[in-house]
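User: Can you predict the 3D structure for this chain?
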Amino acid sequence: MADAEPSGVGWGATGGRWRGALLLLPLGLFAIVVAGLVGVPAAVSRRFRERGFRPIVRAWGRWPLRALGIRLDVHGLEHLEAPGPRLLLFNHVSLLDLFVLAALCPRRPVVLYKKEFRRIPGLGLALANMGMIPVDRRDHEAALRSVAEAGARLRANEATVMMAPEGTRSRAGGLQEFKLGAFHLAAQTGVPVVPMILRGIDEVLPMGSFVARPGVVRVDLLPPLDTRGWQSAEVRRHAREVRELFLRYLPPAPGTPVGEARA
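Assistant: Here is the predicted structure, written as C-alpha cells:
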C-alpha cells in the first residue's frame, strides 16, 4: 500500500451560499443543455465517442466549478494520465462528484452510473450515447452483467473505469464500507487500481443540498495498486485493505470500522 501523502493545503468551503443560490438555475440549465448537445453527436459518430467528447466533458465539469468559485487542488494527476487501463475508485460524497470527475475526464472513460440517472434530461442522453454503463442496484444479476461489461471494456479498449466502491453516497457522512463488485473486477482483469480521494466536497456541497459554496476540493490520486496477484476468493480482504488506505485520509461513516490515523 502507498503511504499517505502529507497535506500542506487546506480544503473545504471558504464563502457563503449567495453565489450558488444565484447560479443554481442557470448552471442547471447549462448542465442539461450541454450534456444533451454532447449526446447527439455521440449517438451517430464513433470517432466522437472515442476521441472528440473529452474536451467538451472537461469543460462541462470545469465551467460550473469556476463559476461557483470552487477550485480543484489536484495531486498525482500523472496516475490518471499514464497509458494503459485502470480502475479508478473514488469516495462518493454528493452531486458535485460528477463535475469533479468530468473536469478530470481521462482518455477512454467508462463510468458505471445509477440507472436512475437516465431520467435526467440531457445527462441521461449523454451517458447512454457515450457508452457509459448503467447499474441497476435493485437487480443483482443485472448489476453483475454491468460489471462484466466494464471488464470487457478494460481489456479491449484500455479504458479507465470509474467506480464508487461505497455503492452510494453516505447519508451520515464519512466513508462507508466497500461493496465487492469493483474488487471482483480488479481480480478478474488484473488492471491497476488507482484510489482517488476527494476531500472538501462535504463542506462545499453537502449531500442533499443543491446550493454550493465557494471553496477548495482536494483531489489525491494515489499510486496504482498492482492487482495481478489478486484472487477472487480474497476480494473481501482486498476491499478491506483498500478501504483502510482511504481511511488514512477520510473519517469512517458512523458505525463502520475505523482505519489508521488520517493525513
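Residues 18-44 form the longest helix (27 residues). Confidence is low (pLDDT under 50) at residues 1-8.
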